[in-house]
Write a structure and sequence with these properties.
2 domains; four-stranded antiparallel β-sheet; 10 strands; six-stranded mixed β-sheet; Rossmann fold; alpha/beta
Length: 274
């Protein structure tokens, strides 16, 4: 279990609005280093908007985001990626006409030091970086995610579950310290979900990467998470260990509109429709 006294990411009093529409209001929480932290909440709660603030795609109205003790609010998305913030997206964001291998290699772009001249001429540092990158991708990431058989196939030809796995591979190629997963198992069948759950745990345990994920699959959240933060209407209504969150009456009302703890527990276990 992670040391909660050592946060790798801190969100403090984060507020976001589009015109007169408040999306996030004074959101605060921490992500313990080495943990799996899940952000959950009903549709429209502000989960993906918060991810976009952390990634740098949205600029919040107020508040602070600190990564490894440093305020990153002024940094652009590529700079945050270079520091070690990598993410996947709710809607798969791959280059469909490119091969799996080329898509994955693009994930290392933020860390490449090659000059434009070297890249065009393809010698010196450019060749060395390409060789090192290909070796790491092929020997570590592709083998780890069990996608060697599709490495040279165009992404457009792949089934949905494999595309999600390729997107995870590209994020891992970014050498993340925090891996932000936006609905990693959305649209997957049971077997694909079980595979993705295994990969997420292995990324945490074997690679030492902190996981921050938004997910609607409550069974997955409760199985994998060390810490859960619940958003509703852009505000944090609960935070704690999974068992604590499932017993929180505010969480139950947000999801079910009732105070029946047993209904929520059965929902989490897949015994009734969520």
């Amino acid at each position: 279990m992670s040391d909660v006294s050592e946060p790798i990411l801190e969100v403090r009093d984060l507020s976001l609005a589009f015109g007169g529409l408040k999306v996030l209001t004074d959101v605060s929480y921490t992500v313990p280093k080495g943990s799996v932290t899940a952000i959950i909440g009903p549709n429209g709660a502000g989960k993906t908007s918060m991810f976009n603030c952390i990634s740098g795609f949205y600029r919040p109205k107020s508040g602070a985001i600190r990564f490894q003790g440093t305020d990153i609010g002024h940094l652009h998305p590529p700079q945050r990626a270079e520091l070690g913030l990598a993410r996947t997206f709710q809607n798969i964001a791959l280059f469909r006409g490119m091969t799996v291998l080329d898509n994955i290699k693009l994930g290392r772009h933020a860390h490449m030091k090659t000059s434009l001249f070297d890249a065009l001429a393809y010698f010196g540092r450019a060749r060395r970086e390409e060789t090192e990158l290909r070796a790491e991708v092929e020997e570590k990431i592709i083998d780890f995610l069990e996608i060697d058989h599709i490495r040279n196939k165009p992404v457009a030809s792949l089934a949905y579950g494999l595309r999600k796995r390729v997107e995870l591979a590209r994020a891992l190629a970014m050498k993340p310290k925090i891996l932000m997963l936006d609905e990693p198992v959305a649209g997957m069948n049971r077997e694909e979900t079980e595979d993705m759950a295994r990969f997420i745990l292995d990324v945490k345990e074997e690679w030492g990467v902190t996981i921050l994920m938004v997910e609607h699959d409550m069974g997955l959240v409760m199985d994998l998470s060390d810490h859960v933060v619940v958003l509703n209407f852009g505000q944090v209504i609960a935070a704690g260990k999974p068992a604590e969150v499932t017993s929180n009456e505010d969480v139950i009302r947000a999801y079910l509109g009732s105070g029946d703890v047993e209904v929520l527990r059965r929902t989490v276990q897949g015994e009734v429709a969520a």
